[in-house]
Each structure stands twice: as structure tokens, then as C-alpha cells.
Amino acid sequence: MSESPKSTNKLRLAAEARLEEIAARREIDGTAFDQAKLIHELQVHQIEMEMQSESLKMAIAALEASHNRYLDLYELSPVGYLTLTPSGEIAEINMTGAQFFGLDRSGLLKRDFSAFISREDGERWRQFFQTLVRQGGDAKAEFRLTRHDLNLIDLRLDCLAVRREPEDFVIHVAMTNITARMDAEKRLRDQEHLFRVIAERLDGFVAVLDAKGRRIYNSPSYERLLGPRHSIGTNSFLEIHPEDRTRVIQAFSETVTSGIGQLLEYRFLLPDGSIRVMESRGGVAWDAGGQTQYVVVVSNDVTERKEAERKIHHLAFYDSLTKLPNRLTLNDRLQQAMAASKRSGQYGALMFIDLDNFKSLNDAHGHVVGDQLLIQAGQRISDCVREIDTVARFGGDEFVVVLGELDVDLGKSVIDAGIIAEKIRATIAQAYVLEKTSKDAASQTVNHRCTASIGVILFMNHDQSEEEVLKLADIAMYRAKDRGRDLLLWCGWLRQQARMPPGFR
Fold it and tell me: Mean pLDDT over residues 213-233, rounded?
């Protein structure tokens, strides 16, 4: 180790100062100057040598510490380091790199690195290494290596070709173990493949949305139903019926926030303007931070099911011929009207209507013609009442009308109900044009006149049940028939409690 002149002078000055201290302590005799001077020089030289030795020891210790730190960084780094010759032999390798191969360092030096490259990556490595040797510089790539125990390991290689002399260069390689990442990516690909296989074979529709409702994935069933316009990145809420959109967006936001999916039914707009009814349930996929990343929505087209349910409901609660409410619906509507009347203090009314001499029409022209009359009569009755009222087919040629929200005054309610009942009676009595057909002859027109007998009752704050109210109105209707038909007659209790207007019986 050489020292600079400045450093040497500084050292000599320090040595002389130390010698003076020693001389002062020893009280050197000034008369022996030459001898003392010689001794002085020798002592200074000795001290210089001692101080240089101390400095050297400190430098060696620092160098050893630095070397040890370098060894720790190099040998124990999580990254494997090796140096390759231009022929591809391993010239140097750290302990981490040796562990990647499952061998001691001594078993790797001077070995051909390509011997550890997996068979499927062999040709790609050969081309990669030749290019690196030929062009120099840096390059990176991922390869699968075969360990000593024949297990495979995925490594990312960051390579740098360094030229020491025109004919001498080496290739430094940093190796990062990416096996866990590659395994995770493979599992993800496998899961994605499985997901796609399942999604593509479901009868329903599968969509993956981001946290804002934009499409990330559509199952092929969506593409078949909606066409290519519903592609990746589009707003999934745009195809929701405007009347249902706000409700669906709200439910989606709650799912994103809470992580709990909801079952929803809504109307779906198709490109041709038609409407389908969808039933959807969402599931949440979280990111590493526990935040909602994706919402997987599985939907089913329930249009046919809803239509079937509607038809079943209609068959259960409506008359198949006239399409009017049947007796089951009538009982429910009457119950509601009577309860509302009791709460509001307003009267309601019930009319029992029977078509006069209907049997003779059936006997003369058949049930097909009779059915036409029932349909037209039901429509005429419906045209005479308000939207809040109920017209039901009770059975055969009998109809029932329920009027709600009349008036709090009995007399006014009688007048209002009577006006509607009289309108119904007069409308039914108008001529009917019916069509009679047969297999053997041309169709013929049947002109028919029909009348009705009507029994009317008002209800509010009395103890009669729905059945009793129907029975009383039925009794009043039969009394009307007994009095000559084409007549409306009020229930007996009402005639006793209210002064009937002129013309009301």
C-alpha cells in the first residue's frame, strides 16, 4: 500500500511530535547532539513504521468487512448470480444460484448451462444465447430449468454481456425464481378456462362486471341474445328498462359495498325493441385489499315462465270466456271494498245481474252464440262502471258488480249506485248482433235482444259478511225476475232505512 507525499509528511510530523513527548519524558542530554540526532531519526522511523502498521491493519480490517458484506450480498442474495463464458460454461455462481440447481457450487463450475435448460425451452435458449454473444448488451427472458432432482423451476434471466478485452468477455446473469408466480398464473388460467367452460354451457347468461358496472366478460349466450353491441367495456345498465334501471343500479351499488349479492327481477331491452324479463343474482370477487374488484352476475331469461305464471294466475282468478274476474277474485275484491268502506265511512254497493231468458238463446242457436252474448254483455257492463269498480262473472249468465267509494250520505249513495245500475240495465237491453256458424252451411247473423234483472245492496258499518251481502243482492235479483224481469230492485233492508227516489223500487 503506497502513501501520498502529503500523507507521509503528515505522518512524519505526527511521529516527531510523539518523539518529542518521549524525549521530554526521558530528558535526553543536549550535549550529545549528534548521537541524539541519530537516535531521534531512528526513533522517528520506528514510530512511522508502527503508525503505518496500525493504519494498514485498519485498512485490512475495513477491507475484510467490506469483503464480508459483499459476500453476504452476493452469496446470500435472494437473486441467483452466475457468470457464463462465451461458450456457455458456468464460470462463477453464488450460493443462491447453486440452490436453484440443487447442487453444490463445485458441481456447477465449468458445466454447460444449457444442460440445465428444459427440453421444451432448449432451442429458444440456444437462439437467445447466440444473439447475446453476437450482439452483446443486455437482454432478459424467462426459461424453465431442470434441477438436479429433475424437478422443474421457472427463472427470469437478466443477462449482461461485458467485454473485458477485444477477445475476452463474460456474460453476467441474474436469476430470479418466478416458479410461484408462474404456478399462480397457470392456476388462474386453469380457473379462467374452467369458468369459461361452465359459463359457455349454462342455459343462462353470465357477465363479469367491474365495480362501476362495465362489462369485462360476456358469456356467448349474451352475444347470441344481444348481439355484438354489448361488448366488453360497455355500460351494462343501458339495456335495463328505464323504469327498472334505478332500482337495479341501487341493488348493484349495495352489492359492491356489502359484498352480498341480491336476487333481482327486471325487464331487459333487446336491440330490436322487444322486452325480456331477467332474473339475476350477483356474486363478488375481492382484490388483495378486500375491496370489491368484480361482480359476477348470473341471469336467466324468465319471460316464458312469467308469461306462464300470468296465464295460470289469469286462469285461477279470471273467467276464461269473458276475461272478467271470477268468483274467487270477486270474493277478494268485495272483502277489500267492504273493509275500505268501513274505514272511510263511504258507502259501497253490490249488484247481482242475471240475463233474462238466456237459456232460450242457447237452445235455439247453440252455446257458441250464447257465449258471444255473454262476452258482449260483460263488456257492456264494464263500460258502465268506473276503473275502481269490479265487474265479475259469477257463473252461467250471472254477473256481479262491486262499486266502491260512493258517498258518506246514504241517500246520495243510493242515487249514485242507482244511476249506474240503471245505465247497466238499459245498455244490456240494447240489440245484439251475433254470428252463427255451422260446418254444413254459411254463417248467419242472429239479431237478439236481451234484458237483465238486477238486485242492488249498499254496505257500510253493518254486520253482514261478504257471503251475506251476496245472498241479499241475489235475493233482490230474483225478486226482480219475479216482478217481470228487465228490472232493478234494492235490498229489503235498504228500502226500510232510506227513502227511495222516484223510479227506484
Answer: 74
